[in-house]
Automatic annotation (TrEMBL):
Species lineage: unclassified sequences, metagenomes, ecological metagenomes
The HTH gntR-type domain, residue ranges: 8-76
GO molecular function: DNA binding; DNA-binding transcription factor activity
Stated name of the protein: HTH gntR-type domain-containing protein
Keyword list, A-Z: DNA-binding, Transcription, Transcription regulation
Length: 320
């Protein structure tokens, strides 16, 4: 099964799948989740794998088990689409705050003074992060846009999107990267970008980029020989998509590509296919032409949540 082939433990992929469903509103607070057996059948994986994902989400407080009724999304789960839904996250933060308050009081500060100092420090950090300039290096603009979108949800910084092919060709100078406070790139490009930056590679932040799980599941279920229309902005997006299909043993799909933005060409192209794969930002362009029975799959790479957390920690730590 395709889920076993792209570098992340399967139970973590299932966990991420459930969290995405919660954030998207498909699984609302209080909603009963599919049984372990049912979800295992849907994803074509073992029940034990689903059980491991459910068990971790139960321990984290995202899910709750109700005796004799099943597993549910926790009823009082915070509804914040920008928040990473990790269980007991708020509880862990409160423990950190409580500990810091106790230490502040040992130093002779009152609770009001503690609150005032924390507020001022947070504001100082926010201003310092806002003034940062971050270069995001990717192999295709579609992926770079996604990375910037993810980072900007929690860090308000100045972004400079840079394409690796442009760096290779010299149409974008390496000095642009060196002038930035930090440079973010996917792990597969780390060595090349570090070599280009030379002695300034300490600014480089490497993240793990993973393909959209839901798209991979849908693609894995397509019959051998299925013709798929791919709508993209760049050849590099198509190349990385094709390499992933080879890597995941889904190379038996027949791909036709359209990079045009001209409405009539798009309409004619879309009409030919039952399945259309589109870069995230191209979906709105093609949905107006999609008819009943056609399936649009949004495919993209995105920064793994663990990498994103580490990146944001690095920015905050470096601020000031």
């Amino acid at each position: 099964m395709i889920l076993q082939r792209f570098g992340m433990p399967i139970y973590l992929q299932v966990k991420g799948y459930i969290l995405e469903k919660i954030k998207a509103g498909d699984y609302k607070a209080g909603t009963k989740l599919p049984t372990e057996r049912a979800l295992a059948a849907t994803l074509e994986i073992s029940r034990n794998t689903v059980s491991a994902a459910y068990r971790e989400l139960l321990m984290e407080g995202v899910l709750e088990a109700r005796q004799g009724r099943g597993t549910f999304v926790r009823s009082n789960l915070e509804e914040d689409s920008r928040m990473e839904i990790t269980g007991s996250k708020r509880e862990r933060l409160l423990k950190l705050i409580d500990g810091s308050m106790a230490k502040a009081q040992e130093l002779g500060f009152t609770l009001d003074q503690f609150a005032a100092i924390v507020r001022i420090r947070a504001q100082e950090k926010a201003v310092a992060v806002r003034e940062m300039r971050i270069a995001v290096v990717s192999c295709a603009p579609e992926y770079g846009h996604r990375y910037v979108s993810q980072i900007s949800q929690t860090a308000n910084v100045n972004f400079q999107e840079v394409l690796l092919p442009d760096l290779r060709a010299g149409t974008v100078m390496v000095e642009l990267l060196i002038a930035c406070d930090f440079v973010v790139t996917a792990a597969e490009h780390h060595l090349e970008v570090a070599q280009l930056m030379g002695g300034e590679s300490a600014k480089l932040i490497t993240v793990v980029a993973v393909p959209n799980l839901e798209a991979m599941i849908k693609l894995a279920r397509l019959a051998s020989g299925t013709r798929v229309g791919v709508v993209a902005d760049s050849d590099h997006y198509v190349e990385t998509f094709e390499r992933l299909l080879v890597k995941t043993m889904s190379a038996n799909l027949v791909l036709d590509v359209c990079c045009s933005t001209e409405p009539e060409q798009l309409r004619k192209f879309v009409a030919q296919y039952r399945v259309i794969v589109a870069a995230e930002e191209r979906q709105n362009d093609i949905r107006r032409y999609v008819q009943d029975g056609q399936n649009v799959i949004a495919f993209f790479y995105e920064i793994d949540q663990g990498s994103l957390n580490q990146l944001l920690t690095r920015l905050i730590t470096a601020a000031l």
